[in-house]
TrEMBL record, chains A, B:
InterPro entries: CYTH-like_dom_sf (IPR033469), CYTH_domain (IPR023577), NeuTTM/CthTTM-like (IPR012042). The active site is at Y29. It holds the Pfam family CYTH. Gene3D superfamilies: Hypothetical Protein Pfu-838710-001. This is Adenylate cyclase. Residues 2-147 form the CYTH domain. It comes from Desulfobulbus oralis.
Amino acid sequence: MAVEIERKFLPAGDGWRGLAAGTHYVQGYLAADRACTVRVRLAGASAFLTVKGHGDGLARPEFEYPIPATDAAQLLDLCPLPLVEKTRFRIPLNGLVWEVDEFAGNNSGLVLIEVELASPDQPLEKPDWVGEEVSTDPRYSNAMLARYPYWTWAGS
Amino acid sequence: MAVEIERKFLPAGDGWRGLAAGTHYVQGYLAADRACTVRVRLAGASAFLTVKGHGDGLARPEFEYPIPATDAAQLLDLCPLPLVEKTRFRIPLNGLVWEVDEFAGNNSGLVLIEVELASPDQPLEKPDWVGEEVSTDPRYSNAMLARYPYWTWAGS
């Protein structure tokens, strides 16, 4: 088991564009309830089956297993629709990796930026294209975006 | 992906005892709904994360991945209680492997016998300790036994 400690932000402008090549992600959820999420992710030519528990604050237990991409395609067929589609840009900067997710499909128009930390209180020097923090807003979890896509957030 | 083709029986007597050494299994379900089940299984010193879809009749799509036993112990903590506990006796006979599951805990008193086949219509020579077939009785799926354990079947 790993512990995932992650902070999440909205972008401030698009200064992140062009800093990294993107990888196409398709993911779905075999389970997404109070106790855990079970995610199937096809990431370019790689694929993963990932179980995340619910942790305290920014930290969550995470169990990730690489699986054959052909399995992932079939497992995605077992997931409720819609699937979450996005392009991920991994941008290394000062010892951290900023992951910019530009969503597509039902979440088109949404860009989220995540950064994984070694501890919840690790000091963070944000690049100027990183804006408002949304770490504690449940709408921005990918499991919630599968169920309540961005385009349904009318008026928000 | 594999396709699991399985028939399931109640025992007829205990002629199966002593034919094989048993392995202790503990398993739980991260998901168990109409689309799929996600099972965590600790089998002796081995452990597996398994996704099963719902197939037609006796055949189900199955995706099984070995995982570290230490992960399995932590993943079982994320599963709803009660967990399913049993001792499995694997008995090879005429080219088939009969798996006798003697349940414990909340399913104590229940013995189920499973056999995996290459095709649903494969001819089957049953040993005399194999009794009534319950392949299509949903109560006997392990995912259902987790939710509605054998001891709750009062009067059945």
